[in-house]
Amino acid sequence: MRKPxxxxxxDMPDLKKAFRVTQKVSEEIDVIEAGTMLVLEEGMxxxxxxRVLYPSHLILADIRIIKAGGKLAAMAYDAGANWVTVMSDxxxxxxxxxxxxxxxxxxxxVQVEIxxxxxxxxxxxxxxxxxxxxxxxxxxEVVETEEKWDNETLNELQRLAKMGFELSITxxxxxxxIPLFKDIPVYCFIAGRKICKSPDxxxxxxxxxxxxxxxxxxx
Length: 219
Ligand code: 5RP
Ligand code: MG
Description:
Blueprint: E1 5-10, H1 15-25, E2 31-34, H2 36-42, H3 45-53, E3 58-65, H4 69-79, E4 83-87, H5 92-104, E5 109-113, H6 120-128, E6 133-137, H7 151-162, E7 166-170, E8 186-191, H8 193-196, H9 201-216
Parallel strand pairs: 1-2, 1-8, 2-3, 3-4, 4-5, 5-6, 6-7, 7-8
Helix pairs in contact: 4-5
Bound molecules: ribulose-5-phosphate and magnesium ion.
């Protein structure tokens, strides 16, 4: 199976603190995420500076577009992002504006974050636009009491993968959770606090990568 990527979410509202982490762990990270809180606090400067410091990394701007899609996506790409996030329940106009600015105009990519409810019609609509990446975000607001990764969720993720989606998995994800996904062709695991708040962020990132390699036996 293809090795899933490891995405580091930088959600601290402070670029200096973010750089303190990235300079320790960048070699173990495949995708650097300018997190929602970081971008709200520091603006696109966060993306711009990450791009200068990490020219070869994929950079995601987690700007959770719900409106003004084309313009917001353009701002992130002009700052150096490769990917942006858009919410699954944005209007069709907004989703299409993001896709036009991303996949069609710039050859960049979009992560659609699944929000409250979706159905197969909505999923087929995403596929028809050329959207591949879906984020499955556990729990969302009540992060202290994360839902379990139960069989129902894992089966649903397997079904989404079979529909052709590249899945990103996130939400308080622990290294010990990784083996649960071993039969699902996960595209990306997204980890934030467990790396950023670790006393040894490099060791924490390495632990994720080791767990991913062990579970997925990449070629
Ligand atoms: C939260 C996010 C986070 O960036 C993502 O969930 C990863 O962070 P953590 O591992 O700390 O949950 O988008 O809304
Ligand atoms: Mg995020």
